Amino acid sequence: MTPAPDTAPATASASGQGSPDRPDDVLTVRNLGVTVGGRKLVEDVDFTIRAGERVGLIGESGSGKSLTALSVMGLLPDGLRATGSVRLAGVGHDLVDADEARMSRVRGKEIAMVFQEPMTALNPTMKVGRQIAEVLLVHRTRPDRASARAAAVDLLAQVGLPDPAAAVDAYPHQFSGGQRQRVVLAIALANDPALLVCDEPTTALDVTVQARVLDLIVRGVQDRRSAMLFITHDLAVVATACERVMVMYGGRVVESGPVQEVFTRPRHRYTRGLIGASDLTAVDDRGRLATIPGSVPPAGRFPAGCVFRNRCAHATEACATRPDWVPTGPDSGYACFHPVAESGVRGTAVPTNQEAGRG
Amino acid sequence: MIVRLVKRIAVLLVSLVVSSVLVFAFMAVLPGDPARVALGTSASETAVAQLREQFGLDRPFVAQYLSWVHGLVTFDPGTSYISHTEIGPQLADRLQVTLWLVGAGMVLACILAVPMGILMAVRHRRPSGLILSALSQAGVAVPAFLAGILLITVFAVGLGWLPANGWTPPAQDPVLFLKQLVLPVLSLGMVQGAVLTRYIRSAVLDVLREDYLRTARAKGLRPMRALVRHGLRNAAVPVVTVLALQLATLLVGAVVIERVFVIPGLGSLLLDSVSNRDLIVVQDVVMIIAMAVLLVNFLVDTIYLMIDPRLRGGSS
Amino acid sequence: MAEQPTSAPLAPGPQTGPVDAISVRDVTRDYRRPRASVRRPSPPVHALRGVSFAVPQGQRFGIVGESGCGKSTLLRILAGLDQPTSGSVAIDGRDITGLRERQLRFVRERLQLVFQDPMSALDPRMRVGDIVAEPLVAQGHRHRKERVAELLEAVGLRADAANRYPHQFSGGQRQRISIARALAPRPKIIVADEPVSALDVSVRAQVLNLIADLVDELSLTLVFVSHDLSVVRHVCDRVAVMHDGQIVETGSTEQVYEDPQHSYTRRLIAAAPTLDRALSGVSAADLNRE
Amino acid sequence: MRHHRRPTRGTGAIAATLACLLLASCSAGSTATGGSAGKNSLNIGLTAEPANFDFTKTAGNAIPQALLYNVYQNLVKLDQSGRIQPQLATSWRLSKDRRTYTFHLVKNATFSNGARFTAEDAKFSIERVSSDWTVAQKSQMDVVDTARAVSPTELKVTLKKPSNDWLYRMTTRVGAMFSRTGVSKLATEPVGTGPYVVKRWNRGDSITLARRDGYWGREPHFKSVTLKYFKDPTALNNALLTGTINVINDMQSPDTLYRFQNNPKYKVIEGSTNSEVVLSLNNSSGPMRNRKARQAVRYAIDHKALMDTCWAGRGKLIGSMVPPTDPWYQNLTNQYPYDRDKAKKLLKESGEAGHTLRLRIPTLPYAIACGTVVKSQLEQAGFKVKLDQLEFPAAWLSTVFKNADYDMSIIGHLEPRDMQTVFGGKGYYTGYDNPEFRALLQKADQGTKKEQITYMRAAARLLSKDAAADWLFLLPMLTVADKDITGLPVNYVSESMDLTGLGRS
Amino acid sequence: MTVLDTEAAVASAAPDDRRRRRPMTGSLLVGGFIVMVVFGLALLSFVWTPHDPTLVNPSARLEKPSLEYWFGTDKFGRDVFSQILMGSRTTLFVGFVAVGVAAVVGVPLGIVAGMAPGWLGELLMRGNDLLLAFPALLLAIMFAAVYGASTLVAMVAIGIASIPHYARLIRGGTLQVMKAEYVVAARAAGRGPFSIGLRHVLPNVSSLVIVQASVGFAIAVLAEAALSFLGFGTPPPTPSWGRMLQESQEMLSVAPRLAVFPGIAIAVVVLGFNLLGDGLRDRFDPKLEDHR
């Protein structure tokens, strides 16, 4: 989301990055867009992730968060096109329009991904061990099949699977959802990727299983000092797993910053509404929850200017033009003409709400 | 795994018995007394009765059915009313002819269809994919015998490269046997190939949409490599089903090609015996075809077991 | 799980008030798996192992549990769509176990279901008006047109939505239609199976508010099933925690959440991330610790 | 890393064989010479394959066509122009009362199983017809009273009453000579005195006859003759064009003759047959019982146009049930000249105009072709006609031939001199029952040769005037062969396709 | 029933129409057009044909295509174009009978097998597969032998032989529908199995039936051509493209057009219905589509 027409100096880039390309920057995304047949699904997304930094990307359905992840991996479905620039440390070329030959060298080696649905993510007719060994053999991080297999057993142990020696010869249908997601994680972490992209990795899992997988993801990334881009719609999960968060709505980043900052002193109206709506403990006098009026428009059909204005109680004519990005720190800022007052207290989305405060 | 196999075998046996009863009942309904047709219409009543007795046609149904089944099981399917000759060897020859024709035809179909089908699926949006798709649609639309007639007119009568028709057992004259096989196999193979291509295309398209293909791409496999290592094995299941179906229908379906190229196959034997009311032969041919179809289905099921581990039981 | 399931005593004291809306006594349900080995038949799956609870009229009763704990099986038995292997279920005091479809009429009138997946809950080939009116048609009510319009208004949709098709509505709106359908035969009991799990956060709040309003206004008895503890905590008065086919703990919402007795309940509550806990420093590792 | 091959790994080998096959055949260049390997072997294309080799029990012309005069021989045989010639009998005398024939037999004839041919075998064969045969022709021997073997080379046969017809019958299948020790497996192993024996039978494809050593008579030219059977006329033509066969015996698609006529490599021979294509009318029941209606039918058919359209003008127009090769042939085509108005008038007078006539034809090439033309011509003359096809042989034989459930049908009667059996016999499908006609036939049979001709002519005239049926035309004998094949028979008068006279120049 | 909260009212039906308006794929357009043309020809043939297709006209034997005879005449002097026109009627009749028989029996069987409890469903399917042991051509030949060769007999045989394909396809679709929550809702509302089958299952599998019907049509036309070639198909005098093809074989080198015109007609119709099938399959919900 370029604040002003392109002439603006790169320094004041949209996501309020400090000096660009700091030494330990792993992923640098500039002006990323995704279009299909003329309709814009993702627009002007800018952010950088440092080594070892865990960044969350939160948004509802149709916000474009999954498309952002997929365009970083270069795995957009047929008919969708990515624009802008995605650079990865240690990789000479830009990832957006790279050809298959170059991208296949990067995927699974520099960047790895964990998907949402574990039940269909693995090849049902191939042993789990071979599917893990494959990512090692394809990138020649292991010389031959025997050592790749041994590494697979070790990886299975790392992700906490019971009896990894037997598991390596089992088929996907012999594992539960949670166990399969751990196999996918093992595959992703196999080559110690510089960047791990997780697209709603625990949405399909039960609470207890989710806790274990989240723990594995965070530890896996920390052990390898890998950067992580974590996509989810669940505020609590992102707050638990990530240090910094970007809020997306209508294909644009409307606010970003440290988790503590964004979730206690939200500035963008949408972020505030989202926090209010997701807090099931804050109820008005009649016991009703705070809500955001209206419903999410279909992908690509958001209003011009500020994409949230058709549901924002504070929208004015000014919101018809695109709000500028107001940087509030090295990696944080928001894009709203009528932001929540600096001193706004957490969870006061609807005036009638009393302080929730429950532990 | 064994349980599934035992169940499948049981289903196979029951189906065989039931289809044999069906076939026998159908034959009994067929009008036209076989003995009378065999002897010609002006034969005397006594002669007809004597022949009926000789063929056991006067015995009660169940007895006739049992002796027929006994004959089938012990590979001695009795003698034909019309030709008074042993049916067994005749069936064996005809079956061998048809298996050669259909087998080679299906092999050619696979050689054509597998690469074309995959190509059409992979280039599914691009013009080359559309052209191939149109071509295969055209291939499906041409009746097999028309293809045969055109091939004869051009290559046999026109250019004289190949014999127009006829069949020579391979042992008798291998070169002539192969020459006579080319055109029929081509016309059979091309048409069946076009049909198979369409199924392979849709099976591969389905597989390309699977999540684990995307996982393979995320691992760093290039699209074609991902398809070959992960996609094809899973796409094989629906394709194997269609192949089995085609093989089954061709056993008698090839009669059209047999008629154009004058090949004494199973289908032609069936046609001739039906017009000569040679009931015992008709019964045996229909039974062989039914057995072949059921056997093919059984083989397909076992192939499923090999391809898809989920069916092998033993869950987490 | 060595510990014995602790559950508060059944409805306190003798049956004083009106009979319970739902009373379940020691219900079990087993499924026979296809034979895996030739020698011995495969062991049966115990979906429910002796479940008992009661829901008095007007109460909002929550059932929490992870997938595979048997809650869906329980729901189908409550709605008379499936028969228990043993034990009994009574709706408004009348035992429904072992009855044939024709005798379950009164259950159809009193108890209706709301489902989880908005995409699959509505028949894509039927107009919204017909969908909502289906229970009325099935139970032979007349002058359905006005009733449908009334129901659509009640769930916050315009009456003219009746002649549109489900795919022309958003997830939240489809859930409203599903609720309108459930209210059509004026049931006394609504059984909601994960009604908001598939919705976005902002829309979820709207639907929860709608359910709360309707339950209050029509003084319905609500059975609310979910894997999401925080949603159940907001909606329900009493809650039962299910694990592996058994109810391991029952009690008022406050008592179960504040002071969980059973170790599984404790682990469940500990593992559930919330914004407040995260902001107060609870990390992923903390969630994972028993 | 084991590279996972596509599932069609096994097809590699087969693909290779198919590819080299294509190459091999293309390099063959010259027209594939097909089966005719050596100079003294011959391939003949035919249409109807025999069901087995036993013509004593199986009807149909296919068996005698292949075996008579080639494997089996008779005392006397029929030559090209229908005259009776000696074969196993060198000469024969008829007694004054025309009831006893004395045959003098050849001395040195032997059967293919080695047994010598004597008068005893002849006696055995003649008596066996009445005792063991089941086909219809067996009644032709009823007139025989006794057969005595006076000496190994002399046979006396006495008839119950004089019969010109009997000697003629001895040239057909009933006159075939069997060995007393060679009748056990007639269906599969025919034993005869002829020059050829059956070498191999690829059922559904071809029968190969081989010349046997030690044949008593003059050895035929060809060492081996293969009879190839084609159901489809076009396949038959293509086989000749590509050299798979050298001779088409009885061409069934006259329209394609042009491809051979103006082609130097082939020669076309047109002769006549005994096969009258009869528009049979059901004289015993239905609208065709009415004589006027039958006559209306005969006037309504334009025979010349019909033959031109459905059989490309090949064949001969005939007025009654007598082919030109019979001694008592006379041209009766003028009795019912084509006159559509007269046909309309007669049909109105007959009062049968309202009825729909069921034209039930067998699925034979000439019947299908002519059926369409007959239906169209009759409809133009005011008839109502419904055409349907009955699968030959089974359905047509049982529906039309046995139950006479038809009004009109089209069938070629190919048995020689069959006027008596088709129109003289009681209960025959034509249902023609005229005592005067039967009396004429009997007088002809028992009279002298000269009387036979006058009475047979009278019978043929009566049959035609009575419009017992309509004779569309006489099927021609169309033989097409390689230029260098000699001795090909012009007409097809006897039941046999005599191979002994063939040669290659 | 008061309107409880104003926000809900604002959230009424979204203004724009979200129906997944997928573009009409090429194959649907071309296939649909061809099928329309064939229907048009068939209807036209009831009213008008340039000449009487069954009229034998010896003087006009084997005429080249001319102004009077657009496709020339055959060996009996009959106008080929009129025969093709009339033949389209037979072709459609062939398709309808075959598809009709297969659908009328196959679809309900499929639905019942899909809705029935496990073991009954399996049993029905085993019986269904048994029918697979009698391929179409085999049945047609045996039926023709019993009832005599006629178009109706041939097509009923083809129809019966394709019942298993319909049943198997529809059972697959039914199983998917039965898993949907709106079926559970209907049961909870008190709907009996029969009305569920009629109101919910049939409409949702109807897309499958239509797609299979168009492909079935193409298969039937090809089968009729093959049967006519073997002499078991449509008997004269009713014009049929299959029989025209068979009759033309004899005259191939003098009048190849006698084979070309019916051959093209058959190919075009088969192509048309196959394309229509593909187009319809892409048009309806892809999730229910079963690439037959």
From TrEMBL, chain A:
<dbReference type="Pfam" id="PF00005">
    <property type="entry name" value="ABC_tran"/>
</dbReference>
<keyword id="KW-1003">Cell membrane</keyword>
<dbReference type="GO" id="GO:0015833">
    <property type="term" value="P:peptide transport"/>
</dbReference>
<dbReference type="GO" id="GO:0005524">
    <property type="term" value="F:ATP binding"/>
</dbReference>
<dbReference type="InterPro" id="IPR017871">
    <property type="entry name" value="ABC_transporter-like_CS"/>
</dbReference>
<protein>
    <submittedName>
        <fullName>Oligopeptide/dipeptide ABC transporter, ATPasesubunit</fullName>
    </submittedName>
</protein>
<dbReference type="InterPro" id="IPR027417">
    <property type="entry name" value="P-loop_NTPase"/>
</dbReference>
<keyword id="KW-0547">Nucleotide-binding</keyword>
<keyword id="KW-0813">Transport</keyword>
<feature type="compositionally biased region" description="Low complexity">
    <location>
        <begin position="1"/>
        <end position="15"/>
    </location>
</feature>
<dbReference type="GO" id="GO:0016887">
    <property type="term" value="F:ATP hydrolysis activity"/>
</dbReference>
<keyword id="KW-0067">ATP-binding</keyword>
From TrEMBL, chain B:
<keyword id="KW-1003">Cell membrane</keyword>
<feature type="transmembrane region" description="Helical">
    <location>
        <begin position="235"/>
        <end position="257"/>
    </location>
</feature>
<feature type="transmembrane region" description="Helical">
    <location>
        <begin position="134"/>
        <end position="161"/>
    </location>
</feature>
<feature type="transmembrane region" description="Helical">
    <location>
        <begin position="181"/>
        <end position="200"/>
    </location>
</feature>
<dbReference type="GO" id="GO:0071916">
    <property type="term" value="F:dipeptide transmembrane transporter activity"/>
</dbReference>
<dbReference type="InterPro" id="IPR000515">
    <property type="entry name" value="MetI-like"/>
</dbReference>
<dbReference type="Pfam" id="PF19300">
    <property type="entry name" value="BPD_transp_1_N"/>
</dbReference>
<keyword id="KW-0812">Transmembrane</keyword>
<feature type="transmembrane region" description="Helical">
    <location>
        <begin position="285"/>
        <end position="307"/>
    </location>
</feature>
<keyword id="KW-1133">Transmembrane helix</keyword>
<comment type="similarity">
    <text>Belongs to the binding-protein-dependent transport system permease family.</text>
</comment>
<dbReference type="Pfam" id="PF00528">
    <property type="entry name" value="BPD_transp_1"/>
</dbReference>
From TrEMBL, chain C:
<keyword id="KW-0067">ATP-binding</keyword>
<keyword id="KW-0547">Nucleotide-binding</keyword>
<feature type="domain" description="ABC transporter">
    <location>
        <begin position="22"/>
        <end position="269"/>
    </location>
</feature>
<dbReference type="Pfam" id="PF00005">
    <property type="entry name" value="ABC_tran"/>
</dbReference>
<dbReference type="InterPro" id="IPR003593">
    <property type="entry name" value="AAA+_ATPase"/>
</dbReference>
<feature type="region of interest" description="Disordered">
    <location>
        <begin position="1"/>
        <end position="44"/>
    </location>
</feature>
<dbReference type="GO" id="GO:0055085">
    <property type="term" value="P:transmembrane transport"/>
</dbReference>
<comment type="similarity">
    <text>Belongs to the ABC transporter superfamily.</text>
</comment>
<dbReference type="InterPro" id="IPR027417">
    <property type="entry name" value="P-loop_NTPase"/>
</dbReference>
<dbReference type="InterPro" id="IPR050319">
    <property type="entry name" value="ABC_transp_ATP-bind"/>
</dbReference>
<dbReference type="GO" id="GO:0005524">
    <property type="term" value="F:ATP binding"/>
</dbReference>
<dbReference type="InterPro" id="IPR003439">
    <property type="entry name" value="ABC_transporter-like_ATP-bd"/>
</dbReference>
From TrEMBL, chain D:
<dbReference type="GO" id="GO:0015833">
    <property type="term" value="P:peptide transport"/>
</dbReference>
<protein>
    <submittedName>
        <fullName>ABC-type transporter, periplasmic subunit</fullName>
    </submittedName>
</protein>
<dbReference type="GO" id="GO:1904680">
    <property type="term" value="F:peptide transmembrane transporter activity"/>
</dbReference>
<keyword id="KW-0732">Signal</keyword>
<dbReference type="InterPro" id="IPR000914">
    <property type="entry name" value="SBP_5_dom"/>
</dbReference>
<dbReference type="InterPro" id="IPR030678">
    <property type="entry name" value="Peptide/Ni-bd"/>
</dbReference>
<feature type="domain" description="Solute-binding protein family 5">
    <location>
        <begin position="84"/>
        <end position="413"/>
    </location>
</feature>
<dbReference type="GO" id="GO:0043190">
    <property type="term" value="C:ATP-binding cassette (ABC) transporter complex"/>
</dbReference>
<dbReference type="InterPro" id="IPR039424">
    <property type="entry name" value="SBP_5"/>
</dbReference>
<feature type="signal peptide">
    <location>
        <begin position="1"/>
        <end position="32"/>
    </location>
</feature>
<dbReference type="GO" id="GO:0042597">
    <property type="term" value="C:periplasmic space"/>
</dbReference>
<dbReference type="Pfam" id="PF00496">
    <property type="entry name" value="SBP_bac_5"/>
</dbReference>
